[in-house]
Structures are given as C-alpha cells and as structure tokens.
Design a protein that fits this description.
By secondary structure, the chain is mainly β. It contains one helix and six strands; from the N terminus they run E-H-E-E-E-E-E. The two termini are 23 Å apart.
C-alpha cells in the first residue's frame, strides 16, 4: 500500500477507469518523467494501482482526514542506502498523539 492524500482522487479520478491508467513511481521525487528516462533512474519501482480506499470520514470542505490508501499490484522492495524505496520517517508518539502542529493540535491523536 501507498499512503496519499484523498483530495488527489477527487474529480475525474473518482472514476476507476481514470486511476487504473495511473502508475506509482516509487523511489524518485521526479513528477514529470517519460518512459525513456526511467532506465536512467537507479532503484525506481513502478507499480499499477489495483484499488483506492479513501478515508470514510474524508471532509473535502475542511480537508479533515485527507488520507487515501493505494493498493498496488505488487509489493515494493525496500532498499537501504541512498537510492531506492524506503518507508517514510514518521514522528514518534507521545502522550497526546503523533506529531504536532501546536500545543493542542496533533497529526494523529490517541
């Protein structure tokens, strides 16, 4: 699975026929790349999207719960080192929750 923003799958991308044509390019921060350039990218993995699961409480008017999970056609292979796919670094939990924007607002709350 890949975690992304729910708002990325609004509009035309609500339609499965539209997002089925997309691929996930993991292991690179490039967003505008052609197929001919992929051979030059070490550690990049391309996966098709099998399913999109948007958070059931996604509120597009306030951007609350702006999460979606992309189920990929194959697992990603994690690699150590400078190149390749690695899990995202997340902040540590504390008594109130995960990460924080202010003294009272947290990214995820317990």
């Amino acid at each position: 699975f890949v975690l992304t923003a729910a708002h990325c799958f609004e509009g035309d991308l609500k339609d499965r026929r539209k997002w089925e044509k997309l691929s996930v390019l993991a292991g690179s921060t490039l967003t505008d790349i052609g197929k001919s350039q992929l051979k030059d990218l070490f550690g990049v993995q391309i996966r098709k999207i099998n399913a999109v699961e948007i958070h059931p409480n996604w509120d597009h008017s306030k951007f609350y719960n702006d999460f979606a999970l992309l189920m990929l056609d194959k697992n990603l292979i994690y690699r150590n080192g400078k190149h390749g796919v690695r899990p995202i670094c997340m902040p540590k939990w504390n008594e109130q929750g995960l990460g924080h924007f202010s003294e009272t607002e947290f990214l995820l709350q317990k």
